[in-house]
Structure formats: structure tokens, C-alpha cells
Design brief:
This protein is α+β, with helices and mostly antiparallel strands and 711 residues long. It contains 25 helices and 23 strands. The termini are far apart.
Amino acid sequence: MYLCSFYLKKQYLCSQNDKEMDEIQRIKQLRQELHEHNYRYYVLNQPTIGDQDFDFLMHELQDLEARHPEMADPNSPTQRVGSDLNAEFTQVTHKYPMLSLANTYNEQDVADWYESVKKGLAGEDFEVCCEMKYDGLSISLTYVDGRLTQAVTRGDGVHGDDVTANVKTIRSIPLVLAAPAPADDLFATPSYPREFEIRGEILMPWAVFEKLNKEREEAEEPLFANPRNAASGTLKSQKSSLVASRQLDAYLYYLLGEELPADGHFENLETARSWGFKISEGMKKVKTLQQIYDFINYWDTERKNLPVATDGIVLKVNSLRQQRALGFTAKSPRWAIAYKFKAERVCTRLNEVTYQVGRTGAVTPVANMDPVQLAGTTVKRATLNNEDFIRSFDLHIGDYVFVEKGGEIIPKIVGVDLDKRLPGAQPVKFVTHCPECGSELRRNEDEAGTFCPNDMHCPPQIKGKLEHFIGRKAMNLDSLGEGKVEILYDCGLVKNIADFYDLTFSQLLGIEKRFPAEDGKPERVVSFREKTVENILAGIAQSKQVPFERVLFAIGIRYVGETTAKKLARFFKNIDALSAATREELMEVNDVGDRVADSIIGYFNNPENLEIVIRLRKAGLQFEMAEDEGVASSDELQGKSVVVSGVFTISRDDIKKMIEQHGGKNVSSISKNTDFVLAGEKMGPEKRKKAEALGVPIISEEEFYKMIGAI
Ligand code: IVH
């Protein structure tokens, strides 16, 4: 009996063991398969399985990894989904500085460079590698033993931000390298060096960029000006899960290290392609100046068919030995140069100038032109910036204007074809009255902008004030959002910020607005259902707890930004003292000058504003500093940048708050501009090293309390 049960137990344990072993094998197999599928899909553009099958394998791996925490691997394909953790970037010193390239704009400049190389190499034969100049965000990737260990942005060229977690979510960047070893030699060393860096560009493909901007437009969020800004904003996000969702891509163009495979730059990149990196297909080795021009001319038009933005061609002397012989100037290598494409330009007729009034009252003239194709889109409007801009071109209605689209998405007028101006054409006269409310426009001396002074009753300005009031850094009424505020304004329920606090359930329920289909966007209906209304009213009720300094920012006194509002709140402690303050008293506050002081006085001299403040106060908003906020404040750390690192006797949030309360600014990474590092226990060794290297003082928690007069 005993024997039998022992035997069964052993059998059970053995089969358990087998199962564990099988699962571990399966994890390894799945990781390899998924790395390969990623590579086929994102680098080669040749997937061999469908999305569903891919997801299926990924889920299987996720499940198995959850059951085998001992197999955790930061470079597993499952790590590409990112996380929502708020990680502060640390700064890293580049092993090799990230230099930029000298720019050229015409064939003569290219010829001069070619001659200078010839001379520098004393007549020796040389080859030039021609490649695309990608218009994104440069990145330096470090691989050790075939695994991605670090990804750092260019930063100031000497130090960059460590964005490894974010970069890992970019599918075309291999986390683990393929090592094609000769099939007959199982013990061959991998073809990649044990440690190397590879540099390239992170890009947002055009298609992803256009989709993202369309979504942002629908959500009434500010648009990205171009894919470069979108890629950069995305990569610097603190949420790697957001980065993962943005479908960034990466092309690599520069291999660095002590033991590179070959002397040729082109050959090294071709080898790197076999390790799994995405390398431009368009790269070409040439010898003569004419071949360089041919390459430039071919890609000047062909680049429009590429999935990502390019803004020129990079020319590099191919041999690394010759590169070393040529060396560097202070800023850039002598062995390479960038040729920038000319911005595309078309000529079209100016039909009319219309005027847009912004949320701050700024009036912007807009050129309405005959529709024309430019860099892949139809252009019919362009900004004219301001009155001086119109004057500088002496614009007339009916003029033929040159329109360009450079790196930016918004086209601009760069000139007029005077030969085509018809006799009797009328000069453009800048509008004198606001097209929205009819008020006479104003322009301050020494300022280029024209504005509508009717800030209390001009519709776009009222909407601007309402939107500012609900903003995240103001009252944070995120249940309302810009779209809904506009509806409430349009239906007459909210005409000023105090009206939010009079809204009732029955007024809001059932409000509906149809946004007709336009510019290819489908019809949209926004309706206030029960749940929406409950959320709105709960948000409004909660906002009554928002501290005084934010309320002061939210009410929208011109020139009183977030920081000035904080300083004013701490100095005057309540709205009564602030509203009664004289110009001199106001100017006692750090950073408050004539312009801000006059604006505050003007605000409280206006009976309409006073009425709004009275109503908000009655509604229960905070118009004085809470006890604990006021007491501890000082100007001891005024203008100082502080980096907090380590563990303290109180929470880090409280420490950071104290820094702000005493006028300091919290910054996340150490630079030469940091005034001091406030170090708790277990301060990060990297940070300590960096502070010491830059000579930034390191201050203990106790010293800090003494500094601000707390002990
Ligand atoms: S090579 C030392 N190759 O252009 C030279 N750069 O101002 C290292 N760029 O910061 C750069 N495409 O971000 C190189 N094919 C290419 C490039 C390229 C784009 C960017 C890169 C660099 C800037 C040069």
C-alpha cells in the first residue's frame, strides 16, 4: 500500500516535472517564434501568419509567463505592450557623443564637400554611401550579448534621456537579435559584436500620423504639426502603454562599437539588417559626384511614396578608416553631410482674406485661395499671421501667391508673383472690427498681433475662458470637456464661469447637439444622458474643494498664469486682500511686474468680474489659502531647480510640495542647471555620480529643512 502510494506520488511528481519542463521549453519556443513574426511583420513587411494567430500565440506566452515568474525576461515579446507606470526618465551620458550633420541645400555645396573629402584623403579613391535623411527623432540603442539593454534619446548630444521602456514597445526594434550562424557550425560565435550601439531615427508613419490627428480633431484635442512632433511627443510620454498604442517605427543608420564586422559603413548596415534591424532599402554606394546628384534627384520625387517622412539625403564616406582620417569639426563629422530637400512650392490665386478670432481674442488673417495640390494634400487656406506679414508682401486680392509646405503640415505663403498682378487689383486692408462681435480691434504698440478687446462678450473669447476654467490645471472639470462646454454655451445655459454652479439636473438632461458631416467626417451626435449629467454635476460639486491658488488661475485674469497665481495666493492669502491691493503692493510679489499688476487691478475694477467672483464665492469655491498651505511658504527656494532622489522620512510628494511652497521648481533629471539634489536614503548611484560630475550640490533632508526654516 505504502509502496504503491509512493510510486503513484512519484509518478505524479515526475509528470508534474515533465509538464513544467515542457512549459519552459514552450516559453522559449514561443518567444523565438514571436520575435520572428514581429520581425517579418514590422521589418520585412512580409507576415507569414494572420493577426489573430499572432494574438493567440501571444496570449499563450502571456499565460505561461504568468505561471512561471522565474522565467521573467525584460526582452520577452510580451514586454512590448508597455505599462501605465509613471516612470521618470533618467539621464545617461552617451558613450560616443551624438553629433549632428552639416546641412547643404544645393548641388554646389555638395560639390564643395566632395572636393574637401578628396583633398582630405590626399587623392585616395573613396566611396560614398547615399541614404535617406529620416525626419524623426534620433535614438541610440545599446545591445549587449544580442539583447537590447538601453535606448537613449539624443538630448544635448552628450547626455540623453533613457527611454528604454518606451522604445521596447516599438515592434520594428529587435529586443533579441537573430544570430545567423553557419548551419554546419553549432558552436560558431554570433555574427554580432558582444557589445555595440546602433543609431537611427524613430518615426511615426504618415498613415498613423493622419489617423492620430483625425482622432484628436474629433476629440477636439490640439493637433500635432507633423509626424516628427508626434513621434517625439509620444516617445517622451511617461506611459509606455501609450507609446505601444501609437505604432512608431524605427530605421537604423549608424553602427558604432569597438569590434564592427567590416570597414565599410554600407557593409556593416547590411550585416545589421541580417541581425533583425530595419535598414533603409534605398541605401546605395556610389563613387562620382554625378551618381550622387542622380541619387538626390531620384529620391526627391520618389520619397513621396515612402511610408515615413524624410527631409533630405545623407552622404557618408563609406570606409571607416577613411572616416577616421577625415575626423570631425567641433559640431559634425567631416566625412558626412546632409543635403536637405527644398520645400515643395506651388503658385495659386488669393481670392479672399478672412479673419479668425482665437480664444484669447487674437485676430489671425487667413488666405483663401484656389485649391491646389501640395505635398500630397489639397491646400486652399494658409495663415497670413498678422498685419505686418500682409504688408511685407504688399498683398492684393487676386494676387498669385507662392505657397510652401516645409516640415510643417500647415502651408505658408512665401511670396507673390508680381508679374501676374492685374491692373486695378485692390490691396488687402486689415479688418478694423471684430468679425465675431463687431468691436473695434486694437493693436498694442510694439506688438505684431491685433486683438479684440471685448473679452467679456466676444463669443470665442467667452468659450476660451470657459475652457480655461475647466482645464486640468485649473478646476479640472474633466467630466465637461471642451465639446460639451461649447454646447452649453451655444444653448445659452453657460455664459460665464459662475453659470456652471447654477446648472441643474433637469436643465442638462436630454440636451443634444448634432454635428453635421463635413470634410469626410461622419455626422456626430453628442447627447447628455443621465449618467453623463450625474458625472458633470458630481465634477462641479467636487471642484469646490480645489485650492485657492488654482481657483485664482482658473478665473482667467490676463497674464496670471499658474505660477503667478500660486505666488499671489501665497502672498495675499485670500481674494479680499488681493482685490484691495495697490499696484505697489502687487509688485512686491516676486515676478509681478507692471503688466501683471495692471491686469489684476483692471480685472477687479470691472463690476462684471466682481459679480462673477461673488457668485463663485457663494457657490462655495475656495477663495482663501487653507491653513496648512499658507503657513509654511517662503521665497527661500525662489527660482531654484531641485532634483529629489531617494527615500525620505515623509512622502516624496510632500517633499516636492514643500519645494514648491518655498518657491522652488521640481525637475526630474540632473543637468548643469540644477541648483541642488535633495538626497534621501538610498539615492540612486547614477544620480549621485552625475551630480558629482556636474558639481551639483547634494543636500540631505535635514539640511533642506534648515534651508527653508522648518527646523
Ligand atoms: S548619421 C555623426 N544618417 O539627422 C552623424 N543621421 O543632423 C550621425 N538623420 O541627428 C548621423 N537620417 O537624427 C545619419 N541616414 C541618416 C540620418 C540621420 C536622419 C538625422 C539624425 C541626426 C541628424 C543630423
